[in-house]
Specification:
Blueprint lengths: L1 H45 L2 E5 L2 E4 L4 E5 L6 E2 L10 E6 L2 E6 L6 E3 L2 E3 L1 E3 L4 E5 L2 E7 L7
Length: 143
């Protein structure tokens, strides 16, 4: 008889667990959709750009990128010709700008020494002995 008296409580627990599982599933779908839309929005802002040298690509995945030799740099170039904190790249409305932040060897864009410059696709950026190409990402599906 105890089983029959506990049946409504068991049924209520099972229904509650089912509703909870459904809510978790719905939240998962909503967060996945939000992440997808946020990534598409960021891609529009960033212009799908990256820095590359040889076979290495550095994604530009935030609105402010610190470039330098120091371990805390977003793009770390372990080369003594590159200053610890060499340059900063920023983006606004799809337009990327590079700024020298007190480096010893300066920044060259397409061979010209600059303090600050708006970047265009295929610009060659010289930081110390390193040459980076500012280009559109090869695979736009990569986050």
């Amino acid at each position: 008889m105890d089983f029959l008296t506990d049946m409504p409580a068991f049924f209520l627990c099972a229904v509650s667990a089912g509703i909870l599982a459904l809510c978790v599933f719905i939240l998962f779908l909503i967060s996945h959709n939000e992440k997808k839309h946020a990534q598409q929005y960021w891609n529009r802002i960033s212009g799908f750009m990256e820095l590359s040298e040889h076979n290495i690509s550095y994604p530009l995945n935030c609105d402010e990128i610190l470039i330098g030799r120091h371990a805390s740099a977003d793009i770390r170039l372990p080369d003594l010709s590159v200053s610890r904190y060499h340059a900063i790249m920023t983006v606004a409305d799809g337009v990327w700008t590079i700024t020298d932040i007190g480096s010893k060897s300066g920044i060259f864009v397409n061979g010209a020494l600059i303090k600050q410059r708006i970047l265009h696709e295929n610009d060659v950026i010289g930081l110390g002995s390193r040459k980076l190409i500012f280009r559109r990402r090869r695979n736009e599906d990569v986050y």
